[in-house]
Amino acid sequence: MTETLPKNKGPDKKDDKRYWLDDMNNVYKIFWALVVVCALLFVADAFYHKHVVYEFENWFGFFGLFGFTVSFALVLTARELRKLLMRDEDFYDR
Amino acid sequence: MTAEFPPGLLLIVGALLVPFLKGTVRSSYMLALPLLGIWQLTMLEAGTFGTMTTFGLEQTHVRVDKLSLLFGYIFYIAATLGSVFAWKINDRMEQTSAVVHVGAAIGAVFAGDLITLFFYWELTAISSAVIIWSRRTDRAYRAGFRYLIVQITSGLLLLSGTAMYANATGSIAFNAIGLDSPGGILILLAFGIKCAFPMLHNWLQDAYPEASATGTVFLSAFATKLAVYALARGYAGTEVLIWIGATMTAFPIFYAVIENDLRRVLAYSLNNQLGFMVAGIGIGTTLAINGAVSHAFAHIIYKALLFMSMGAVLHRVGTVKGSELGGLYKSMPWTTGFCIVGAASISAFPLFSGFVTKSMILTAAAEEGYLIVFLVLLFASAGVFHHSGIKIPFFAFFAHDSGKRPKEAPFNMLLAMGVAAFFCIGIGVYPEPLYALLPFPVDYTPYTMTHVVTTLQLLIFSGLAFAVLQRTGLYPPELKSTVLDFDFSYRWLLPRFARWAVRVGGHAIKRLEAGIDLRIAHFIRVVYRHHGPDGVMARTTTVGSMVQWVIVLLGVYLALYLVWG
Fold first, then answer.
1. Interval B313-366: pLDDT, tens
2. Mean pLDDT across the stretch B92-110?
3. Angle at which helices B215-234 and B286-317 cross, to 10°
4. Are B280 and B289 in contact (CB under 8 A)?
């Protein structure tokens, strides 16, 4: 974190200090920085020789695309699973 | 103290003194014990001692080799971290049972035979149940009982398997067992329960999050990794473990995404990490076994770190439900930072501990030609970054501001987290000392261009997926909820089935009784007819008539005598 951090505050005491992350513009900045890093990592494949076991690992940007796709699918599947598996918090205590 | 004192007993005997000490003296004593243990391990030489023969079977109390030493060291390190983290706790029950638990786990990894293993195995079960109960809530009480039942079952399976094994082979030595040995399947099941194999796993997610902030730190390190050790010792290269391990890496992460209790999320990711180790043991090459046990070593530290950071949140806020947290970085910056180090380590970011250990398992899977397993492990690696790497720090410390401004964690907790974080980064940056401890010589370089770039691609793109899902609102929000898992079968179905069985069975018994009633009534009527007041068997005759008949008999007798005599 780049912002200055507060010293110990009493429990649950509201402080009015604005933090760097409180500004949504800065959150967007982080998001776009992430996009840029991803783009750089994606093109990095062009600049070195991969030592791999399977042929598909050599596909351009395979690990990036794989990571993005399976994570996306993981969350969407888990979201659907909620419909099946989610119960009230006191489900077992009733 | 001689060096030939069983390493586990050191703590178990040492624990007897814990209840009689107070305050700082007790905390210092609890810290001194594992440090003394580490010192003892440095004195031990490879070999066995404490051998005795009972009923013709040779027991070996202590067997020292590279594998047992590695687990001995990491267990003592975890106990040291836990003692610092729990410095200010004043709970005789929890502290005593924690020391016993550590001692039992260490005794078990040094056990040279299955009976000694069984003894310590059961002791870890009982001591950890007491740790859970020490939270003294109703939920902890019940979860502790469920936990104990499952763990004792594991012990009984181990004992039955051992009996069959000893009967067939005449030996109880704990070496490679394999599935083909008599009792081999039972012993594997026993290990499998403790290692949280799929369907046998739910005690973990059920019980660990119910212990206290400090108790869970102790629980997370020992029992499951003891099972990993036992599998590495007994079942290295057993192919079915590869598939079991791959399943374990994949399915808990779906739960981790939707679970609200962040310590339960960590329990799911613990389960997922065990899967990597189990798969490595199943592959069974020297690279894979090195990967599995070194991953266990690194895992114990970063998992303890993550549980400590959530423990600190629980200690300060009173809850670790994602739905009630957020924005804590503002008042708990150090805890946030340490949590992120733990998260980076479990996600296997370059320069963090998980990177230099887990990659051995993935490389072994690829090189041995297990394509599907390799892809599943890749998926799980992306997934673990998603739910442990991002979700835990994000929902606890960032996300929407909950308005809560708890104090930073106490100094002792920060110190424990700081040392753990130091280890996480230290192992990641400089893995050679850990590699030197591994059971087989290490011929592996984690930091190659290919490996660093592909890992970063996998992880950062996974992070991008999280960011996109958050921005588009597709990411499932943290909701107060219970998520049904396999424990549904014994916490919901089984009690209802039992009640149904009693009700239906009750009716059946009534009907049966009615049927029996009829038969009994008939029987009574028959008996009554013959033996009742008017029954033929119950008629009385007078004494006079009896005498009369005797006289007649005697008369006939006399007559016969006179005729033929």
1. 999 999 999 999 999 999 999 999 999 999 999 999 999 999 999 999 999 999
2. 95
3. 170
4. yes
Residue A42 in contact with partner chain B when CB distance is under 8 A: yes
Q: Do B458 and A63 touch (CB under 8 A)?
A: yes
CB pairs under 8 A between A and B: 179
More confident position, B539 or B450 = B450
Residue B112 sits at the vertex; the CA angle it makes with B109 and B113, to the nearest 5 degrees, is 110
Contacts of B331 in chain A (CB under 8 A): 6, 8-9
* d(C-alpha B450, C-alpha A50), whole Å: 5
B60-74, B227-241, B510-524: range with lowest mean pLDDT: B510-524
- Report the distance separating Cα A76 and Cα A78, nearest Å: 5
Q: Is B170 left (phi over 0), alpha (psi -120 to 50) or beta?
A: left
CA nearest neighbour of B341 among B355, B330, B323, B331: B355
Interface confidence: ipTM more than 0.85: no
Give, in degrees to the nearest 5, the angle at Cα B162 between B161 and B166.
Answer: 120
Which of B330, B466, B470, B474 to mutate: most A Cβ within 10 Å?
A: B330
CB within 8 Å of B32: residues ≥ 6 apart: none
Contact B118, B159 (CB under 8 A): yes
Q: How many angstroms separate the CA atoms of B466 and B246, rounded?
A: 23
Residue of A nearest to B495 (CA): A92
- Report the alpha-carbon distance of residue A3 to residue A6 in Å, rounded: 9
CB atoms B405 and A14 under 8 Å: yes
- The residues in B 370-409 lying below 8 A from A, measured between CB atoms, are 371, 374, 378-379, 382-383, 385-386, 398, 401, 403-408
pLDDT tens profile B433-470: 999 999 999 999 999 999 999 999 999 999 999 999 98
Mean pLDDT taken over chain B? 92
Q: Does A78 contact B at CB distance below 8 Å? A: yes
Per-residue pLDDT of chain A (94 residues; tens, 9 = 90+): 344 444 444 444 455 678 888 888 888 899 999 999 999 999 998 888 888 889 898 899 999 999 999 999 999 999 999 888 888 888 888 7
Mean pLDDT of B229-245: 96
CA–CA dist B287, B280 (Å, integer): 9
Per-domain boundaries in chain B: 1-235, 237-480, 491-564
A10 and B406 Cβ atoms separated by less than 8 Å: no
Specify which residues B59 forms β-bridges with: B52
Give residue-wise pLDDT tens across range B191-200. Answer: 999 999 999 9
How many degrees, rounded to 5, is the angle at CA B285 between CA B279 and CA B288?
45
Check if B445 contacts A (Cβ < 8 Å).
Answer: no
C-alpha distance across the termini of chain B, in Å: 106
Say if B202 is an interface residue toward chain A (CB within 8 Å): no
Buried-state track B173-183, b at ≥16 Cβ within 10 A, e below 16:
bbeebeeebeb
Residue A7 has a pLDDT of: 46
